[in-house]
Write the structure tokens for this entry.
Amino acid sequence: MTLKVNQLTGGYSSIPVLKAETFDVQDGELVSLIGLNGAGKSTTINHIIGLMTPFSGTITLNGLQIQDDVQRYKQQIAYVPEMPVLYPELTLREHVETTIMAYNLDQSVAWERAERLLKLFRLENKLDWFPANFSKGMRQKVMIVCAFITDAQLLVIDEPFLGLDPLAVDDLLNLIDQKKEEGVSVLMSTHVLDTAEKHCDRFVLINDGQVSYEGTMPQIKERYHELGDSLTDIYLALARQQDRSKSNVKGD
Ligand code: ATP
């Protein structure tokens, strides 16, 4: 699955938050959106998953835009939000069933996948529990299970590493690797740069709603070699520079 974001301008009111963003995610690639609080990562994701409509520019999944076929577009995406969103009146079993219906999945194939994932995340005995009984991390795992049982060809994961325990983070990274091997593309946003550096194929740096740099780790190191040797060091130096130039503009 190829996701192409081309000259995306968008936001919440008439003033755009995103300004002509262009980047892509290729087949089987794990790409991370990196940016400070308020840079526009979640807004970008909200446009890609079809929750927001661009002011201008295009978003395509293998050439398909949302307006071409809303259902087909949305069925190609599975989304794991930063804050788990579960239906309070539905049990874990009913969440899985709802996903199976929404994505038109084969019952037995999907339940086989679900059982394997529920076991991995130690939720297999909690199928009749309601979200109110789950911890935040457990809710996040339910969302991951629901996303990973689908046949979606693009996985969008907003900040996967903060609410999960270290074992679950490792399991999630392995699951992402398996999906990548099947050709699924993965877009995530994260502030956990050490983990991102180890696992992501490419990085899209977002500053103030614009793509400030896009590249692989070797490309980033080559471009910014004077700033450091790791994604964390390079990104901290870049973010400080950007912050200084913003306050200089404001001071003018
Ligand atoms: P974080 O790392 O804190 O999650 P982010 O990069 O995901 O940040 P966004 O949530 O995309 O940032 O926010 C980008 C800009 O859009 C910010 O200026 C924010 O104030 C604004 N914004 C976000 N949500 C809304 C909303 N619902 N209505 C109006 N403006 C919003």
